[in-house]
Every structure is written in structure tokens, then in C-alpha cells.
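Quick note —
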Amino acid sequence: MGSSLILRSALISVVVALVGCTKSACPFESSSTVTVESATPCLEARVEACLDAVLIVRNNCSEVLTLPIDYAVFPGDAYADPSVEVVPGAGVNYEVRRDRASSTDASGESYSIPATLGAANLTFRFRIEHS
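Predicted structure written out below.
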């Protein structure tokens, strides 16, 4: 009985160690502020980066934000359309494909994600740094 309890405790410790992404386990520990060209104050955007970069956008504008699906990771057949629409008041977690980095060097990766807000073209730009 005692060895069974020790084994279960050891398994729980392993599971806890494997779940989550602590700063020491992240290959990308920091990211830049997201800039939006053309400046659009009604969009809130930030990046979270650990194993992959995730662009998190909240659309507080009165028009639909459209992002291309070919810059992001989506489950197979998640979208039949070539873009993701983020309606006013909604948000999206957009996991960026690493092969779509606009530049890569020893210290990190830079991204430029095209989008539209209504009829206006804009670009989300950010950088993630390797630890």
C-alpha cells in the first residue's frame, strides 16, 4: 500500500512538471509590443510567446477585423474560408506559424501579419526573442 502511494505521488509530480510552460522551459521568453500599422486605437493586441507565438487581438472597433488563416495554425478544416473574421466586441487567439516569420536570426523571429479592418489594410508587427 505504501509503495502504491509513493508511485502515485511520483506520477503526479511528473504530470505537474510536464504541464504548463514555465519561464525557464520557454524557448521564447519575451516578445515586443505589438504595433498596428495603420494605427488603430480600437484594436487591443498583445503577444504571448512560450513554445509558439500567439497574437491575441480584441476587436473593439465597429467594423469586422479579417486575418488570413495561412499565417496561423488551425486544426484541419477548421475554416473553409481563407480568412478569420473577428466581429466587433470579439477576440481571437491567433497562433502564428513559425514558417511565416518575416525574418529570423539567432536572437529571435519577427512577424508581419496582414489584416483588414473593414476596407482598410493594416499589419500587426511584433518580435519574439529566444531565451
